[in-house]
Amino acid sequence: MAVFFARASRDAAQRQVVHDVRAVKRIGIALFNGFALPEAATVVEIFQSANALGTSMRINGPRYDVHLLSVGGGRIASSSSMFVWTDSIESRGHAGDLHALFIAGGAAVHSMLTEERMVDWLRRLDLRHEQIFPIAEGRLLLDAAESPDTSRKLRRGEGAHAIAWNGLNVSTSQRSSTPLRAALALIEKDFGAEVALEITGVVRLRFEAQFAAAPNQNAFGTPSEKIRASAQWLEMNCGRTITIEEAAQFVAMSERNFLRRFKVEMGVTPSDYLLYVRIDKCCHLLSETDLPVDKIARRCGMGSGGQLSKNFRRYLGVTPTEYRASKRSFSEARRELI
């Protein structure tokens, strides 16, 4: 996911001439310092995946030109301290230049509510040409852009009214659909439901796979029966405090030999494997339940919600709350397409 976002950031820093006969649709993503990375990055990935499929399959459809935008342009940081390069909003502010605009979310959006240049720019946009989709807290910026004396009010997410979803007009209750679903709806309109569904699967699988492969990435051959048994024991007992001595005793090995064999055969230390198992279990509970983050952390042996958030930021680049929101957006989008 971050790879696609970094690519869009690089393109913003140095635009290159692309020899492509397809029509171009410009997609803007409005960012600010401290923006939440996951859904904004996934929107970028969705459109860039559509570009790749359109080229490889020679599908008759537009090419999406994604622009990362901020008030002053230049380098800004996400909430997880990933830096991206952006264009200034003034460079893309005239009516008709953007086909769709996504507004990033994140708690830091509150600092933008008094930023007159951003609010005025949003107020000037013409919804007859641009379709605007706020991501989570990004909706607050649209609220700030509304004023009683503005005849052309920016309506919260109602830019979706012009999009068909699976050939049907989007109902009033669906106009607040998530940005991921909105991006896929645009692609479905341009390329068809089959392409949109394939992109949903590709993006979801890439999101899920970014961590899952880690435990065995350096493994040599097939683990022995004892090491496989110890790994299963770690998985079964991941919800409580575990010592290396306990794990070694379970398979009747000395601690030193157990540590050496586990590292060689599994590719990671027992402690790292246990952490991977715990994070994987947390991911499942975040996706499949409404349990609070603190309760999930305790159930998975993480201790506290703060420790869980720290590990998620380190290994997945998102907070548990952001992960939960992204996973549910994927699931909702896929259900709508099927």
UniProtKB/TrEMBL annotation:
Q: Does the keyword Transcription apply?
A: yes
SUPFAM superfamilies attached here?
Class I glutamine amidotransferase-like, Homeodomain-like
- Matching SMART domains, A to Z? HTH_ARAC
Matches recorded under InterPro entries: AraC_XylS_family_regulators, Class_I_gatase-like, Homeodomain-like_sf, HTH_AraC
Record-linked Gene3D superfamilies:
3.40.50.880, Homeodomain-like
Pfam families recorded for this chain?
A: HTH_18 (PF12833)
Q: Which UniProt keywords apply?
A: DNA-binding, Transcription, Transcription regulation
Entry annotated with the keyword Transferase: no
Q: Which residues form the HTH araC/xylS-type domain?
A: 228-326
Which GO terms fall under molecular function for this chain's record? DNA-binding transcription factor activity; sequence-specific DNA binding
Superkingdom per UniProt: Bacteria
Q: What is this protein called?
A: Helix-turn-helix domain-containing protein
Organism of this sequence: Paraburkholderia polaris
